[in-house]
Write a structure and sequence with these properties.
Elements (H helix, E strand, L loop, with lengths): L14 H9 L10 E4 L3 H7 L8 E4 L5 H15 L4 E4 L4 E4 L1 H16 L5 E7 L9 E9 L2 E11 L4 H10 L2 E11 H11 L1 H8 L11 H9 L6 H6 L5 E6 L2 E4 L3 H7 L8 E4 L1 E5 L5 E3 L5 E5 L4 E6 L2 E6 L10 H10 L1
Parallel strand pairs: 1-2, 5-9, 11-13, 12-14, 13-15
Antiparallel strand pairs: 3-8, 4-10, 5-8, 6-7, 6-8, 7-9, 15-16
Length: about 325
């Protein structure tokens, strides 16, 4: 199950639902557009029943974030050709949400006052981190927008040495993958920097979105490059700005990152769900079904996770490679 459909933090809402709740303060359910793989349309609708079914756009296969954004943009353009769009991942954890929404509203105001602006939301780096992309922050725009700056450079996930340099120099913030722009602005940018992608979706303009078919969308995606919006557009465009937020943000890309955000006991153990008796154990993460109990003795910095009858026990610093065990699991199931 993809992580956006799971209640990773034991809050009673999945990451997708938490994302919806966050932006529900800004717009009505009918203005939400979800782009997902076609196999997940039903579960998206189940988790977000107030979002119209026609607003769940299904990709035939993955082509990274640039085609995904172009797809949503083509759909929104038919509703409102001058709409301001917020692009957000669905699997991020944000605390101090009032600060985050304040930053979003500031970004919306800035974009609405500009003719052609691409804005990204950044979080000031507070440690060297190799799992995130970075934005080098330039000059402040004005006294009216004290946390809004020009962007000097975008950098994809750096190695440890570069991450430490970025952190030490103090000019970099983490790239959250949250963007704000007008429909027309990102369309112009895609046409300029990724004409192959934008031209494919231009072909859909003459067709009402209600008449888009699986076959027509598949033909479009077959011709699209597999490239991120950061690499395809944001690193090349000159009209890019960053609104820094003081909210706490985390991309929950690993169990270790989930551990960092979770509440902990006096021994730095994090119990997200279930019951646990941890003897002489420190720095562990436990997430098991509510009706079950785990007993662990003398474990330091481990994850203990159960889902659908599978128990995963591993050092926290190796838990990011859990996907490698899928083949072994399937082989064991076939033998049994």
């Amino acid at each position: 199950m993809p992580k956006q459909f799971l209640d990773l933090m034991g809050l009673g809402r999945t990451m997708l639902q938490l994302t919806y709740d966050r932006f529900r303060n800004i717009c009505e359910p009918s203005h939400f557009v979800v782009v997902t793989n076609e196999r997940y349309k039903t579960i998206v609708h189940e988790q977000l029943p107030d979002v119209p079914l026609e607003n769940i756009l299904c990709e035939p296969f993955r082509r990274n974030t640039a085609p995904c954004i172009a797809f949503a943009n083509a759909f929104i353009k038919q509703r409102d050709s001058d709409a301001i769009v917020i692009v957000t991942p669905s699997d991020h954890l944000i605390t101090s949400e009032n600060l985050f929404i304040e930053s979003i509203n500031t970004g919306i105001r800035f974009v609405s006052e500009s003719d052609d602006t691409l804005l990204t939301i950044g979080v000031r780096a507070h440690r060297p981190e190799t799992a995130f992309g970075y934005i080098q922050v330039g000059d402040t725009i004005s006294d009216q927008y004290k946390l809004l700056n020009n962007v000097k450079t975008f950098t994809e996930k750096p190695n440890e040495e570069m991450a430490k340099i970025f952190y030490d120099c103090g000019e970099f913030c983490w790239n959250t993958g949250v963007f704000i722009w007008r429909v027309s602005s990102i369309e112009r940018a895609l046409s300029k920097y990724m004409p192959n992608v934008q031209s494919q979706f231009d072909a859909l303009d003459a067709i009402p979105s209600s008449h888009w078919t699986k076959e027509s969308i598949t033909r479009v995606y077959e011709e699209c490059e597999n490239v991120s919006i950061d690499y395809g557009v944001m690193e090349k465009a000159r009209n890019v700005y960053v609104q820094q937020t003081e909210a706490l943000w985390a991309d929950l890309g690993s169990w270790d990152s989930i551990y960092e955000q979770a509440s902990k006991d006096d021994f730095d153990n994090a119990l997200i769900e279930g019951n646990a008796i941890l003897k002489d154990s420190k720095g562990c993460l436990v997430r098991i079904p509510k009706e079950k109990t785990v007993i662990a003795d003398s474990l330091n910095n481990y994850v203990i996770i159960e889902r659908d009858g599978v128990i995963f026990i591993c050092p926290r610093d190796k838990a990011h490679a859990s996907w490698k065990y899928k083949a072994e699991m399937k082989a064991a199931e076939s033998i049994n």
